[in-house]
Design brief:
The protein has about 260 residues and is an alpha/beta fold. The protein is built from 8 helices and 9 strands. Helices cover about 35% and strands about 20% of the residues.
Length: about 260
């Protein structure tokens, strides 16, 4: 397996990851990668003040992961080199307020159902992983995974749906703010072919990804050839370990050139 030169899918404490921005350079060097994209959920990291920032020899790309709704399924779009527009920031603010409101409702349901008090105050960036961790750390008889499987996962008794941006609107918002917009982890969706069909309107697709099962990348490679897409990739790290997947140097060079076009 070729050593990744970049990890273009990383989450931080601005959403549901555990890394902070000051910790990114050491984590990147430990993984042997020179480029890292911070792609927090529905949020542009408030501590990154430029589309690309050099810190201790590591190039940190300001990005975003935006969930969007299609007529068949929900997809995740990755925007890279973000120059935030007023419209994108307004949508992120709307989504983050919805996340906070939703978290309050889920917490209320969990506490009422289990008779416990969760040590968690919802803030922008909150997601269900934060609530699952709080459940596991409470007096409730559930660990992290059981909290998802039995309480707050889709269809579970304490689940609350959240608002999702329509695909066309999300793609437009990201295209106006980012020189590169791609589809995340295309082989994770219930209908990968339908997901990949949307790459006709994008710049990139996540070709390198640490799926937890054997996958055939041929449909992704076909989409790359058909639509002349950038082959991005990353670890989707929510912890401190980077470099589990990512593009090689030859691909990163083309990606870098596209970032610099805007």
């Amino acid at each position: 397996m070729t050593q990744p030169a970049a990890d273009l899918h990383v989450h931080t404490t601005a959403s549901d990851g555990t890394l902070t921005v000051p910790e990114l350079p050491a984590a990147a060097r430990g993984a042997g990668v020179e480029w890292v994209a911070v792609t927090d959920h529905d949020r542009v990291h408030p501590d990154l003040d430029a589309p690309v920032t050099d810190r201790d020899g590591v190039h940190i790309i300001r990005g975003i992961e935006l969930r969007v709704e299609t007529d068949r399924q929900r997809l995740d779009l990755l925007g890279y080199g973000v120059e935030p527009t007023d419209a994108l920031l307004a949508e992120c603010d709307r989504l983050q307020q919805n996340r906070v409101d939703r978290a309050h409702e889920i917490i209320d349901r969990v506490e009422a159902r289990l008779g416990v008090t969760l040590d968690l105050t919802p803030e922008p960036g909150i997601g269900r992983p934060h609530i699952a961790r709080a459940i596991a750390e409470s007096d409730a008889p559930y660990d992290y995974q059981e909290a998802f499987d039995e309480l707050i996962g889709d269809g579970c008794p304490c689940y609350v749906a959240r608002e999702i941006t329509p695909f066309d609107r999300g793609r437009e918002l990201l295209a106006d703010a980012c020189p590169v917009v791609g589809l995340a982890h295309p082989l994770r969706y219930d209908d990968p072919d339908a997901a990949l069909a949307h790459t006709a309107d994008l710049d990139a697709v996540e070709r390198y990804y640490p799926y937890e099962r054997a996958v055939d990348p041929t449909p992704v490679d076909n989409a790359i050839d058909r639509h002349d897409l950038l082959a991005t990739g990353g670890s989707d790290a929510h912890d401190t370990t980077l470099g589990r997947a990512g593009p090689p140097e030859s691909v990163v060079s083309r990606f870098q050139q596209q970032l610099e076009k805007r």
